[in-house]
Amino acid sequence: MYELTINLKPETKTPLYEQIYGYIKEEIRKGRISSGERLPSTRALSRHLDVSRSTVELAYEQLLSEGYIESQPCKGYFVSQIEGLYRIEQHTHNGAPAEISGRRKFSYDFTPNGVDLNSFPYNTWRKLSRESLVEDRAELFRLGSPQGDEGLRNAISNYLHQARGVECTPGQIIVGAGNDYLMMLLCAVLGTGHKVALENPTYKQAYRLFANLSREVCTVDMDEKGMIVEELERSGSDIAFVMPSHQYPLGTVMPIRRRMELLRWAEKDEGRYIIEDDYDSEFRYKGKPIPALQGYDRNGKVIYIGTFSKSIAPAIRMSYLVLPGSLYQRYRERCGFISSTVSRVDQMILQKFIEEGYYERHLNKMRALYRSRHDTLLSELKKMGPDFDISGENAGVHLLLHFKDGRSEDELIRLAEEKDVRVYGLSEYYVDCPRNTEETVILLGYANMSEEKIKKAVGLLREAWCR
Amino acid sequence: MYELTINLKPETKTPLYEQIYGYIKEEIRKGRISSGERLPSTRALSRHLDVSRSTVELAYEQLLSEGYIESQPCKGYFVSQIEGLYRIEQHTHNGAPAEISGRRKFSYDFTPNGVDLNSFPYNTWRKLSRESLVEDRAELFRLGSPQGDEGLRNAISNYLHQARGVECTPGQIIVGAGNDYLMMLLCAVLGTGHKVALENPTYKQAYRLFANLSREVCTVDMDEKGMIVEELERSGSDIAFVMPSHQYPLGTVMPIRRRMELLRWAEKDEGRYIIEDDYDSEFRYKGKPIPALQGYDRNGKVIYIGTFSKSIAPAIRMSYLVLPGSLYQRYRERCGFISSTVSRVDQMILQKFIEEGYYERHLNKMRALYRSRHDTLLSELKKMGPDFDISGENAGVHLLLHFKDGRSEDELIRLAEEKDVRVYGLSEYYVDCPRNTEETVILLGYANMSEEKIKKAVGLLREAWCR
Which chain A residue's Cα is nearest to B213? Predict the structure, then answer.
């Protein structure tokens, strides 16, 4: 019999049974107790260590459950063969493993991609997270529907109907881990042999995705109402990618007539579709919300894509695709077997978040918050004099400044940098083709900045830019 | 001034400020208080309702934050224009919205895809979840690295090195929401113009994926050591998809010599690669774990894919790809901009789960649990007589029964069904080509069944099958 002398420390946070378990495990791993050796009985060890018997029993139970020891009836506990057991040593980290981004940090950053994360409803999310992990335990961890859980799709369908005028059944919805993923999926559903047209400037991530997934892509000019449909027709494309509620980055809202024109273009050929990306349509500060194009579609031509990344947080990887009936069958055949990319726990949290009214409240709060930042930025900019015109007001989370004084984008960005303010040029949103060189356009995003910071930053821009 | 008569219910669970907030919100929505109307001062309303002033202030604060009212200094609170506000009504669900699956439920189901979900470490997961949602709040909700957070990739790299003999830096790892997604991504990285060879029978989900994503696919015969390399050579494929540690569904372990042959095949041409799917390699019950093929690869020919779905739970959508250096650049160019599909909160939970030693303990527990179920099933089956041979023992979570008595798969499945036991035929794992019709093979998965259930179920199978 092996005698174990364990130096127990009752004053530490680690429970006694854990200390005993840990000690014996280590001895077994190091080979100091060989496999086949018999451990002391629980009674003997408890007397030897001067602890309760149940403490020893608990330790032995752990060792048994993990396979370090085995129990032979009437004989006792014996050390197992441990070669099959896992042993993963923890490497200690020296501080936070921050990746060197190489990017300078600015005191004031007018990024157009910002989301105010301080407003994220942590307490609610945590509460719902806890509830979800308690409910229906085993079921939630089983593989769910590839399209996402029906309960969540119900909640999304309901929300889309009321808030966006999107008409669909839960069955048409596919929940996925982000827009990029859903667009990859869409490419797989649509197949090859298509040509995708995007506006210019546009959401370049989408352009890159279609281009890199070997789809033919092109850009089609816009006017102040959005994509020019005659040009679209001329381009020979069969898929149009648009953001009619709030074009990114220009902020253009596609009026009704243009939407109808676009729908008519799509109806001309069976293989034509419109991809409507409703990114950031949630934030309008004046007037009624603009309904989605999809709601006007009577012929199954519009593929609608939306996300919770902008309205909740980017790291919530939850977006959704609404497929028209005509494409649903193709999805089932080509991709219906691809498992869902969103954990069912996260789906349940989001479903509750929506159904219990938190999403509505959160949206309204964010809208009010962004609106007052928008108002502040606008009024501060107006004080700056006539060097530029402003566009993109009253919706989204950034404004555009159109300079007509001949100064280049690089120059304006550099001048701002010298004051520790980061601004963005419109040129990076263009795909390849030559821009209108008469004007220089600068983007100022305000989602991430408090009203105080906005005032200070605009003050610095005035110093930088005004002559 | 508008007088508000609210019927407050102090005895209910809803706080008084919430009741006041809810009432006023509803009145505003229904238009009973028009926009522009002035609300009572907080002092007046608190006196009128006989509640504390701070209760009314809290209610007004909520309404203000969501944009229902606005505050005009020295004048008071006024109802806003509400047309931009969200209003999402909750549809009540009548009971649980269970989808009609149309599938019969069996009392005993020997599914080979089972995972014992009762062992899922809920308490730990919930604890880590709570901790993750408290730590570094804003940062965690910002968009992270497309490959997944470095901390998690560190932990995975460490685990892979120690447990699987996989050699890689964290930079080679891409974390994704499930194997299906990562294989889609891989297809995008590899591009078109490839031919993928799989064994037969095989993991058909992979076959379907490659086939549907317009990749040329074919199958290559296996012998008792795995894929036959001369046949692979003859097939003209340039990508081989194998599961050398534990082939699914046959359980074949590819011995060293065959692995070397496979690696030599890949080295003959720059464009050739091996995809190693290490699914369910965690569970071996006899002997040392078999190291991954990737560990022997000196020429960057092996693409390694692994998952946490089998060892933790299917709904944990977290898998990882290890790209050889030669493909990493291509990934950056073609797909480097595609955002991560795993929420950073989930990544953090998993990282802690691994780093704090819980994963190791969980794996050992699952192994011990599955092993005893394996042992029980094996011993019960051996009592059943000589009608079949058994293969696939000592690893994975299912056994294969090879019947030589001429009875068909359908017949055996039907007989079992009559006893309310579900068993699985090997034929569904074959791709298209004619099988060896001499023998009928039935799969029995045991992950999901307690030892009691296993004994009962085998008893029923004996009644069903033994003549």
Answer: A188
